[in-house]
Amino acid sequence: MDSLTGNKLRTLRVSRGWSQELVADKINITQAAYSKLELGQVRLTIDRAKELAMLYNVNPEYFFIDNQTEHYNIGKYSIGIGTINTGKYYESSEAQPIIHHYEEILTDKNDQIKLLLSEVENLRKEREQFWKLIEKLNGKR
Known about the structure:
This protein is mainly alpha-helical.
């Protein structure tokens, strides 16, 4: 097996945030055996390609074609993953986990920003109270 197929396996696995152990368990092989598939040290069989295709929701042929971009026919347009055609962006099912992952990252980032802004506002209020207290103490002298 060539490294291209191994790279495809790794890309699909990583895009979903899965470990080699998890994927190996899902297809009933050892992590070491799965690692050899990703490293291109072991040839991917048709049956194993079918299992992995079902797991990753891709066509089994995807693992054996040289072209890294699957093409889809939508209407009169032939498109690939992430290709911009006629002013519209099309994506395949492979892009969905990656998009979902980045949406989660953005949501977490926005939540962290809201928390930090809230903390900054609390610090401002505490600073105002601190200075009012200092002014009172200085006035009592």
